């Protein structure tokens, strides 16, 4: 596979799993009537930005996730205070735009001093001009304009905090759920593409060739059908082949393999594996695959989800117990490196890997770690039990500290990733 294709597929993997996650938040927030100000992929400086409807869609520099910014989640950046001089544009006596700067450059506007303003509940603005006070209704989609930026007003019923606990919880949990759905679908696609090993096979294939081992230096390829070893028919008995290889340290073995319908004879010499004390070639045997039925697709996808979830939680357990080295952790750079390596193996393996990443992202986001979706669900659960919300300032501080800690961890693992690349480690 060409390098350009590998890079493109690697970028698309990140884009797909993050976009589907954020789309879950976005879709259910919109369904609840929440004003979504921004749908962002990545963090940091903007690389690309376009506004459609009420939402600005942005692509940002740091590929470490994404976010959906909803009205009312954070303190609004633009405020209008009584006594402030502004200019307003009207349509049918309803305020559609409020200008906060460069007032002399505005045309077709009414300029005056704000006496009263309520753009959350009453949606009214009292403006004093030339000693006369006029009261105007503010459109629920009116824009506040300052420093060349437009910010849509957010009536209380369009803010995140005004919705029921159930609506807010659904908007939050929808992100991880979309990752689970994507993982399930992709596992199903993988089994449709790759099939599953045959039960009681009558032949074996070369399933993998390990680089740096004797097999990698011989003309043996993944997918070759193993016919015989030193004239002994192997059939579907992998144990027989492993036993012959193990007993033949530094003794050449003749492999007869079938490739594209033709018989190839290949000599390979096993090397001593110091850990096990037996001969190794660096190959693994695989059973021939068969196609799966429509019903089996769901069954195998479900089993893959279950098995991979167990493996992910085993990894989390090691992190909690400290049963790991800092060098073992990988970040975005390492993930991109592994993704590119898997992309080179073909689309089938890449589909499986994307399913794993999507499942991991969904599970990780549900952990009760500050700044993650799981932590926000915990706060909503406490609100449901108490009958009133936690102090927004305290909750924001918890999430801020959690986000800062996650960013520090991200820097640490990225540093490890870069060192690993410099050293040429895999």
TrEMBL record:
Arranged from A to Z, the UniProt key words for this protein are: Hydrolase, Membrane, Metal-binding, Metalloprotease, Protease, Transmembrane, Transmembrane helix, Zinc
Q: Which cofactors?
A: Zn(2+)
- Membrane topology field: Multi-pass membrane protein
TM region positions: 6-28, 169-191, 350-367, 396-415
This chain's protein is named Zinc metalloprotease
Check the record and name the CDD domains matching this protein. Answer: S2P-M50_PDZ_RseP-like
Q: Which SMART domains match?
A: PDZ
Keyword Cell membrane assigned to the entry: answer is: no
Organism, by scientific name, is Paenibacillus albus
Give a Gene Ontology cellular component term annotated to this protein: membrane
């Amino acid at each position: 596979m060409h390098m350009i294709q590998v890079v493109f597929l690697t970028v698309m993997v990140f884009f797909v799993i993050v976009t589907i996650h954020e789309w879950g938040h976005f879709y259910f927030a919109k369904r609840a009537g929440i004003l979504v100000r921004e749908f962002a992929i990545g963090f940091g400086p903007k690389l690309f930005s376009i506004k459609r409807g009420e939402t600005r869609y942005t692509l940002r520099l740091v590929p470490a996730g994404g976010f959906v910014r909803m009205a009312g989640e954070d303190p609004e950046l633009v405020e209008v205070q009584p006594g402030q001089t502004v200019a307003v544009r009207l349509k049918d006596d309803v305020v559609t735009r409020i200008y906060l700067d460069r007032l002399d450059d505005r045309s077709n506007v009414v300029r005056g001093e704000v006496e009263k303003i309520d753009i959350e509940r009453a949606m009214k603005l009292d403006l004093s001009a030339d000693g006369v006070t006029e009261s105007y209704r503010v459109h629920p989609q009116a824009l506040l304009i300052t420093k060349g930026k437009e910010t849509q007003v957010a009536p209380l019923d369009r803010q995140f905090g005004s919705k029921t606990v159930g609506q807010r919880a659904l908007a939050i949990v929808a992100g991880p759920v979309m990752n689970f759905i994507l993982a399930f679908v992709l596992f199903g696609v993988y089994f449709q593409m790759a099939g599953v090993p045959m039960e009681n096979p009558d032949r074996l294939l070369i399933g993998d060739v390990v680089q740096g081992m004797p097999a990698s230096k011989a003309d043996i390829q993944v997918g070759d059908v193993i016919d015989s070893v030193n004239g002994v028919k192997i059939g579907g008995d992998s144990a027989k082949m492993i036993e012959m290889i193990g007993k033949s340290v530094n003794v050449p073995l003749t492999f007869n393999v079938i490739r594209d319908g033709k018989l190839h004879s290949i000599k390979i010499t096993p090397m001593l594996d110091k850990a096990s004390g037996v001969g190794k070639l660096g190959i693994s045997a695989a059973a021939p695959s068969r196609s799966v039925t429509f019903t089996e697709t769901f069954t195998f996808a479900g089993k893959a989800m279950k098995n991979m979830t167990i493996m992910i939680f085993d990894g989390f357990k090691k992190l909690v117990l400290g049963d790991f080295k800092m060098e073992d952790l990988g970040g975005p750079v390492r993930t991109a490196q592994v993704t590119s390596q898997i992309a080179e193996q073909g689309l089938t393996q890449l589909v499986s890997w994307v399913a794993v990443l999507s499942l991991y992202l969904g599970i990780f986001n549900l952990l009760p770690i500050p700044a993650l979706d799981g932590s926000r669900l915990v706060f909503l659960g406490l609100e449901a039990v108490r009958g009133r919300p936690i102090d927004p300032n305290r909750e924001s501080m918890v999430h801020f500290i959690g986000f800062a800690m996650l960013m520090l961890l991200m820097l640490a693992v990225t540093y490890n990733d870069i060192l690993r690349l410099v050293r040429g480690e895999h």
